[in-house]
Amino acid sequence: MKIFKKEGIVYDVFNRIRLRDFSGNTGLAIKNSSFQFFTNAVSKVGTLLFTVIIARLLMPELFGLYSLAFSTILLFATISDFGIGSTLVRFISKEIERRNLKKVRAYLSYLGKIKFFIISVLIVVLVVSARFISNTFYNKPIFLALIAGTLYILFYGLTLLLQSVLQSFNKFRAIFFGETIFQFFRIILISLAVLLSLKFALSNELLLFYLFLALGVSYLLVALFLGYILIRKVKIFGAEKLVLSGKQKKQTNKFLIALSASTLSGILFSYIDRIMLGHFVAAEFIGYYTIALSFVSAASVFAGFGSALLPIFSRVNKNKLEIGFKKSIKLSLIFGIVSTILILILASPIISIIYGREYLAATNLLRLLSLSFFTLPLSGLYTVYFMSRNKPQIIAKLSIISTVLNIVLNYLLITTLLGYSSFAATFGAGIALLLSQFFYIAALEIARRRDLKKENKPIE
Asked: What residue spans define the domains of the chain?
């Protein structure tokens, strides 16, 4: 294969790293991708370690309740981004290239106000609906956890905003250290909260309340660190204040609305399975499903460099974009094949050794979901590709279609297989997820080829 030859992708990447040659767009992409790789590694490994610790401390039923509450809170928290982060990177990166710091500050001010308005609305909605969600829809004791989750939503949203600004300035080192801080304090604070709660024999609902308070504090510490770096290292706050024109706001809003549709679809795509399972099955089955997804997500770190390419792809011409995209796809497929094979062989000992024998029921779920090693990184790369070409509407349309398909498949498979067993229904959620993911990737590739054909570009 060409990628293994002297002039291939792998050789070029490792040779540049060996020589510390980060010149040009290619060098910058490699440098950013390296930091993004290590950031993803810290995130995934930290999440895996955190999941192992909390799963062993809480055991399947209580861990399932935690997972359900976390999925619900994270649904609200992720909605708060609303595509603002990617929009910020898209427009700020171009202004940085032009050294127009006044315009950078203007975009940050405009999009920042939108973000905090959305966060405020979502916090109010969660507080008002928490009782209904916990007692009526789920019929599970997570009310206090949802209330504590409002702090998580606030500080998580602030952290994402700061990360987007730093990403635009190619400050991936700071993002890496921020992620390290979060993972460290999350593991320490959550472990202490669990141990103290168990020591004082608190109820499950109170225990979950303190867990989510600890998560919120962890993100507050990260936000303070990133804010400090932004003030010290990025000289935009001293720039003269500038207000975006009506035309510029309209252009930004158009991009944001198109991207928000795909963002909202992606959120539902990611969490609809656990939300539906929370309505139909007992908490321990959600725990089994969560550890399988968690491990797959952690192992996908080897292909998690897509977001690092966005500032670069946003600045290069279309021919270079195609070349960079194809190289990234090939690397992702290599990592996907290797990871999938390893998990198919080692699923049982992985579950037993890492999570404990209490979770061995999740072994075949892990094998099933290992197919996501192909779809997860490819989805990120296609998103970067179409955003870099200023065509978020393609992502939005296909995200909506695949999300609707995912919801329909989840409902049909869960309710149909529930007649056999709760565990069969849990498998139904995994099958629905995979079918929807592969449909999404296939549709994105078809859209890319059609787009290139219209422009009379060769397709490889």
From this structure: 2-454
